[in-house]
Amino acid sequence: ITVVETEFSCPICLKSHGEDFYYRQLSNSKRGLIYKKCSECGEVLGITSNIEGDVVVWLKSEEPKQK
User: Fold this and answer.
1) 49-65, pLDDT tens digit by residue?
2) What is the pTM of this model?
């Protein structure tokens, strides 16, 4: 039984990434989110987890610009 989803695919190139790609850095993050480059296409991904423990990924380039 899978309780939480810990793998994700890059939204651009669809490369699959597992916990070994992000887990240690995310667990040490004080903000609860990290940014990492996809190992396949180099796109910068935002990575966090939701209240259920599932990993959530987005493109940093699509974040609203802060003023």
Assistant:
1) 999 889 999 999 999 88
2) 0.85
Cα(1)–Cα(19) distance, rounded to whole angstroms?
17
CB 7 within 8 A of CB 18: yes
Output 57-61 pairs: Cβ under 8 A, ≥24 positions apart: 57/8, 57/10, 57/11, 58/11, 59/11, 59/12, 60/35
What contacts 12, CB < 8 A, 6 or more positions away?
Answer: 38, 41, 43, 59
Dump pLDDT digits (tens) for 10-52: 999 999 999 999 999 999 999 999 999 999 999 999 999 999 8
Backbone angles phi, psi at 45, to 5 degrees: -110, 140
Handedness of CA 27, 33, 36, 40 (dihedral sign): positive
Q: What is the residue whose two structure tokens read 């990492």?
A: 36
